[in-house]
Design a protein that fits this description.
There is one protein chain. This protein is an alpha/beta fold and 305 residues long. The N and C termini lie far apart (58 Å). The longest helix has 31 residues, at 13-43. Helix 6 links the parallel strand 7 and strand 8 (216-220). It is globular. It contains eight helices and twelve strands. Helix 1 (2-9) runs antiparallel to helix 2 and helix 2 crosses helix 3 (50-72).
Length: 305
């Protein structure tokens, strides 16, 4: 645990390597203890000898680790369709979140960009935690320059854990537009981006942004919290990440204690909310019951103006 924490703040050299190793073992231990708990419960109802309990624990833990590591290397494409009378034509938006660059490689970015290009979106929206550590290299973002569509980006909590100014400097070499409590326009769409440093008051942030209630408003907010305030302000769609969907089953049940909205599409007082499971993992390179996700948001008109 100490190596994991130190590696977060001192990501280079030996501590960085120890961080990666400890991240994996934290995930492995979580799975191991879950399997032990399950086998112990089964042993209370079935006559399994201690020897076979140990064998079952070893086999199940190893199997789940292999499956989890394999799942952690894959990226799924998930499409969600939302209809609204506020637009006159269809828009395809790509939602990326939680890439955690610094521990993830530039090759991972190139793979993601390649998949995004094939989807032919009108815009790409990145809802925070793009950069994870001071080990991040600005060149890791250059692959985004291969996209010819607008790219909007807003800060998540991890951008505030690294040296001030690093994210701004990094995107200065790209066509990524940073929205910090700001608004951008894309045809009929109003795209808002707010900082998400956990202590930020969304209501105060939204007061800084002018709204045209005739247009379709999209709020990029890293964590799926304070959604009722977005609804009160008249936001049509909130796009979030942060939760990773719980990443490793059954951790998703624990995540639900802290976040009511964990993954998927919701509606809160007339405002739609989509929470992605994240484009990459955080910490352990393992996924069980969740996916690395490129989210495709299809906006379609309900009627012709």
């Amino acid at each position: 645990m100490l190596a994991f924490m130190l590696g977060t703040f001192f990501p280079k050299g030996v501590l960085g390597t120890l961080h990666k190793i400890s991240s994996f073992w934290l995930g492995a231990l979580f799975i191991f203890f879950f399997v032990v708990l399950c086998v112990d419960l089964i042993g209370r109802f079935l006559p399994i000898t201690p020897f076979w309990q140990i064998v079952l624990i070893c086999v199940c833990t190893t199997t789940l680790l292999i499956l989890g590591i394999d799942q952690g290397t894959k990226i799924s494409i998930k499409t969600t369709t939302i209809t609204t009378p506020k637009i006159s034509k269809a828009y395809r938006l790509i939602l990326l979140s939680d890439l955690h660059l610094g521990y993830q490689s530039a090759q991972n970015v190139a793979t993601i960009v390649s998949k995004v290009k094939k989807l032919k979106p009108h815009a790409v929206l990145i809802t925070g935690d793009l950069i994870d550590s001071n080990a991040f290299l600005p060149d890791d973002l250059l692959a985004f320059n291969e996209l010819s569509v607008p790219i909007y980006y807003t800060f998540g909590n991890h951008e505030f854990y690294i040296k001030k100014g690093v994210p701004e400097h990094a995107i200065s070499q790209t066509n990524i537009q940073l929205l910090r409590n700001q608004r951008a326009e894309l045809d009929e769409l109003q795209i808002w981006g707010v900082d998400d440093n956990r202590h930020d008051d969304l209501e105060a942030q939204l007061k800084q942004i002018s709204i045209d209630k005739q247009g379709f408003t999209i709020l990029m907010k890293h964590s799926p919290t304070q959604i009722n305030k977005a609804a009160k302000r008249g936001v049509d769609l909130v796009l979030s990440g942060h939760t990773h969907g719980g990443q490793i089953f059954p951790f998703n049940f624990l995540v639900r204690i802290f976040y009511h909205y964990v993954a998927g599409l919701y509606e809160v007082k007339g405002t739609k909310l989509y929470v992605t499971e994240g484009t990459s993992f955080w910490g352990p390179p393992i996924r069980l019951g969740t996916h690395n996700e490129i989210a495709v948001i299809e906006l379609k008109p309900t009627k012709t103006r």
